[in-house]
Amino acid sequence: MRPTYLEVNLNQLKQNLENIRAHVASAKVLVVLKANAYGHGVDGVAPFIAPFADYIGVAIPEEGIHIRNMGIATPILVMGGTLPEQLPAFLEFDLTLAASSLDLLESAEQLSASTGKRLKAHLKIDTGMERIGVREYEAEALIEKSLSCKHVDVEGIFTHFANSEEMALRGVKQTSPMTSAALQLERFEEVLSIYEKRSEPHPQIRHTANSGATLLMPESYYDMVRPGVLFYGIYPGRDIEQTIEVKPALTWKSKVVFSKITQPGRGVSYGSLWHPEAESRIATIPCGYADGYFRRMTNQAQVIINGKKYPQVGRICMDQFMVNAGNDDVKVGDEVTLLGNGIRAEDLADWVGTNEYEVMTNISARVPRVFV
Ligand SMILES: *Cc1c(COP(=O)(O)O)cnc(C)c1O
Predict the structure, then answer these.
(1) What are phi and psi of 104, to 5 degrees?
(2) For a designed S-S bond to 126, which of 99, 133, 207, 258 qualifies (C-beta 3.0 to 4.6 A apart)?
(3) 231 contacts 244 by C-beta, under 8 angstroms
């Protein structure tokens, strides 16, 4: 195995899930495993965590099929948009559809009727994200349609928040250009009340809460919560109230593959963007932007070698980058930590100018995942 790898602490993930579960009391927990389990490696995370999850969430049917092919029987909701031609896979692999339009629900009903197999669906209501789903003011038609579906099993109804991690905005309605989670929840309630008006029971699984709402809005839990980033031990906002204790489970490690003293006048890496001011030990690390170590972090990132932080210097290359170890004796084979043990996903996100989600999901398939 290559010396650059991700170590994933599965017990920490389980602990995070237990802490979330304890906080949300009787609500079910959907564990979000999309995007290769937020970069952690779905092949290790899914089989380990599935027995403890009520539901699994993925973005696209292929991710659901991959999990089914591991022999996992936990219900799987495909949360993203779906084209009608993708529907047969939902039947074949027992995936739950996010029914985000009347047309899609109608296609699902026709497919179920013609095959005699019941397709499971959750109605997707758009209360302010403006991504996919039927807006609250047009939801009555979708609900009517769903009540008349004889072959599709409409088991749930859900919405997704655009700003749940913005604590200050939770109660704010009209004064901000952002749509507050409180307003979205009000709109979701309006939709649920349509069932009461018609004296029909609402679908069994009502759900709205992503990580931000799971932390901040108990009134948003309903029957199930959908924490993603929080399950992986990362808080969805920098100064969000940490009402649930979670810890990251990832450590990104490598080893020094080359070590030398370089001198003033000898610029380091492509573009010679960095020059030592004095003789300096430069260590080369066999990891680059093709592994997901963003080129944008050039001359900003830090790594830990032998317990000490050192600055990354010179352009980050596709497969390697350099570190300035100053006067320290850093040798070939010394362990390097790129993430974890005091370097947080938040730090990498700041160096790149992105969020923790992109840092984690960007770690490429070339980096082996080791599950401990
Ligand atoms: C990704 C996703 C989530 C999880 O979001 P986090 O911010 O990571 O908690 C929840 N619901 C839907 C619909 C999603 O697409």
Answers:
(1) -65, -40
(2) 133
(3) no
Alpha carbons 53 and 227: distance in angstroms, whole number: 11
Q: Of all residues in the chain, what percent carry a pLDDT higher than 70?
A: 98
Strand partners, 232: none
| Å from CA of 229 to ligand 1 middle | 8
Confidence band of 141 (pLDDT split at 50, 70, 90) = very high
pLDDT grade, residue 173 (50/70/90)?
low
Q: 17, 23, 30, 32: which to mutate for ligand 1, most atoms within 8 A of CB?
A: 32
How many angstroms does the Cα of residue 303 sit away from the middle of ligand 1? 30
Residues 6+ apart with CB under 8 A from 76: 55, 56, 57, 58, 64, 67, 68, 94, 95, 96
255-281 pLDDT, tens digit per residue, is 999 999 999 999 999 999 999 999 999
Instruction: In whole angstroms, give the CA distance from residue 184 to residue 314.
Output: 46
Give φ, ψ of 278 to 5 degrees: -140, 175
- How many whole angstroms separate alpha carbon 320 and alpha carbon 331? 16
pLDDT at 64: 98
User: What pTM was computed for the model?
Assistant: 0.96
Residues with CB under 6 A from ligand 1: 32, 34, 79, 160, 210-211, 226-230, 236
Give the chain's mean pLDDT.
Answer: 96
- Which residue is associated with the tokens 């307003």? 183
Residue 233 φ/ψ, nearest 5 degrees: 85, 15
Going by C-beta distance under 8 Å and a sequence separation of 6 or more, which residues neighbour residue 320?
Answer: 257, 284, 285, 286, 287, 288
**Tokens at residue 162, please?**
């655009």
Using the Cα atoms of residue 21, residue 24, residue 26 and residue 29 in order, give the sign of their dihedral.
Answer: negative
Domains of the chain: 10-225 (3.20.20.10), 250-371 (2.40.37.10)
Cβ contacts of residue 184 below 8 Å, gap of 6+? 127, 128, 129, 159, 161, 162, 208
Give the DSSP H/E element, type plus range, for residue 153. strand 153-158
Q: Euclidean distance between the first and final Cα of the chain, in Å? A: 16
